[in-house]
Specification:
Length: 254
């Protein structure tokens, strides 16, 4: 991907670690200027510093995408520091497991606010900026295999991830006339700092995935970069599943 993203400016939310960090890092090392967001100030600043030390151009912007107005701020910061915005990646999301019969309104609202408000309003503000620039742009949303297949104790989360896929499909109608592509990516089990807190996670998904392993972060990053690169310029409104074949057979980890 070296030099693929010259003259591109990207926002990546939820990028203090894991998949988001991997995407921000690879975009930056491929010549994009990146505004890296995370609600955790320490994570955001450390991530941006690490990318900068590797030779990339990356700035941290700390805040919670659950607040619609913060998404507008993210876009404004991109324009302020880098003069434009050409790639927006709504990666931020949270998973709150819970039994459907006792799931709390507080947890439900938090999942909705982060996953859906954060995605919808980043997309809205990014698209408005891209319209103003009259320059082609690309938007990528982060869904999940749970948006396609049932997964116990994830009813609220799965609902948001299915909605994100429909958002990508629906907005083709409104964004295409302005040269804006929009797609989603749906990762399956992926080895990140968060999932590896579960000592059985890696071994469990080695058994459940048809290809015999969980995804590494780079497996998802490579798919994401493809969808925001010129290589996918004729692809829009689609969701790319990256799950090692799990959703084809769907064995439950429980």
């Amino acid at each position: 991907m070296k030099k693929t993203f010259s003259d591109q400016v990207a926002i990546v939310t939820g990028a203090g670690q894991g998949i988001g960090f991997g995407i921000a890092r690879q975009l930056s090392l491929s010549d994009a200027k990146v505004l890296l967001n995370d609600e955790n100030e320490e994570l955001a600043k450390h991530a941006a510093k690490k990318i900068t030390e590797e030779g990339g151009i990356c700035m941290a912007c700390v805040g919670d995408v659950a607040d619609p107005s913060f998404n507008k701020h993210l876009v404004e910061e991109s324009v302020k520091h880098f003069n434009k915005l050409t790639i927006a990646i709504a990666n931020a999301g949270i998973t709150l497991f819970g039994d459907f019969f006792t799931y709390s309104p507080k947890d439900f609202q938090r999942v909705i606010n982060v996953n859906m408000n954060g995605t919808f309003f980043l997309t809205q503000h990014a698209a408005n900026q891209m319209k103003l620039q009259k320059e082609k742009g690309t938007i990528l949303l982060m869904s999940s295999v749970t948006g396609n297949q049932a997964h116990k104790n994830l009813a609220a989360y799965a609902m948001t991830k299915a909605a994100i896929q429909m958002l990508a499909k629906n907005l083709v109608i409104e964004l295409s006339p302005f040269g804006i592509n929009i797609n989603a990516i749906a990762p399956g089990a992926t080895l990140t700092e968060r999932t590896l807190n579960d000592k059985t996670y890696k071994q469990t998904w080695e058994k459940l995935n048809p290809i015999g392993k969980a995804a590494e972060v780079d497996d998802v990053v490579n798919a994401a970069l493809f969808l925001v690169s010129p290589l996918s310029s004729h692809i829009t409104g689609q969701t790319l599943i990256v799950d090692g074949g799990w959703s084809s057979v769907s064995p439950s980890p429980f």
